[in-house]
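Lab notebook page, bench 4
Experiment: in silico fold of construct C2
Operator: M.H.
Input chain length: 194 residues
Purpose: comparison with the prior construct
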Amino acid sequence: MIFLYAAIIGYLLGSIPFGLLISRLGGQGDIRNIGSGNIGTTNVLRTGRKDLAALTLLFDGGKAAAAFFVAKYFFNFEAGLLAAGFALLGHCFPIWLKFKGGKGVATFLGALLAAKWPIGLIAIGLWLATAFLFKMSSLAALTAAGLTPLIAMFMGYHKVAIMAALLALIIYIRHKDNIGRILKGEEPKIGQGK
């Protein structure tokens, strides 16, 4: 029952569509009508409002961290990991938006920062380095998601590594169209329209 409660807490927190809410409150309308139609940070950035994109990043990461800490406080560390994982599922497949959500990158980073902050910082560093070199948010996300589980395992954080690997799988599935465009050389650069 502990893990069921943790999963429900995580999913419900994760399913709050902050990108959509923040964009509307910021006067940008329905974020699903521009760019990729996604509710995440990268698409909010396409409105030209860096402040709204930063808030979306913060809140989308924060909901996974909140799920982790709530479940850890009431149950245990493993329940916290499960709640953080379900927060990513809620973000990607929110019941309120007919299961059409974001791609989970900010939520992934928030989960890692909460569960084991050194791993979270490494993941952010990987994202930033890749984004700086290649100017592609999707490639940065795929690189961070792909390498972080291996790094966590190498550093001895086995439970975090397992969570990160499962979440990375979801991120890769959510980025399947991006992967196709990257391979064709057609993926937009950061700051460009889709």
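Observations: The mean pLDDT is 95. Residues 2-184 form one domain.
Next step: discuss at group meeting.
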